[in-house]
Amino acid sequence: IEVFANHQSGRRNGVRYIIANEGESFASLAVFLNMYERTLRKYNDALDTRELQPGDIVYIYPKKNRASRKHPYYYFRPGDDAWKISQRFGIKLRSLYKLNGIPFGTTLTTTQRLDLR
Questions:
Q1: Is the separation of the CB atoms in 81 and 93 below 8 Å?
Q2: What is the Cβ-side half-sphere exposure of residue 48, based on CA atoms within 13 angstroms?
Q3: Global model pTM greater than 0.85
Q4: How far apart are CA 75 and CA 94, in angstroms?
Q5: What is the DSSP letter of 21?
């Protein structure tokens, strides 16, 4: 997939991503990337109701089941949510819950230590 000059891009956990710009949605990025919106949402663990904010990381390939060795754990902070953490480290949302023995969808708590590997 060719990433054009009007998007910042990079890799996290070895997975390629772009940064969403103002006014973009999963649908508009899917057209831009020549892929299905449902595929892009799946790669990013994004339900149909999740909207992109400027600066959000959008993975263009599937995330991994665990974080890189550089990031074995993470302490939950105010303002975080499980989706933001999974995006920050390039790890699948379900894997984040599974690695920590937490039922999927449970609200995480402040200062909770999360294993990422």
A1: no
A2: 0
A3: yes
A4: 18
A5: P
Tokens (6 digits) for 71? 């990031």
User: For position 1, what pLDDT does the model report?
Assistant: 47
Q: Are 11 and 87 in contact (CB under 8 A)?
A: no
Confidence (pLDDT) at 66: 96
Alpha helices in the chain (DSSP H): 26-33, 37-43, 82-89, 93-99
Cβ–Cβ under 8 Å, residues 16 and 61? yes
| Residue 99 identity | L
Q: Residue 73 carries which side chain, given as an amino acid letter?
A: Y
How far apart CA 66 and CA 52 sit, in angstroms, is 24
Q: What is the mean pLDDT of residues 43-63?
A: 93
Site of tokens 């949510």: 81
Q: Which residue has the tokens 């996290």?
A: 12
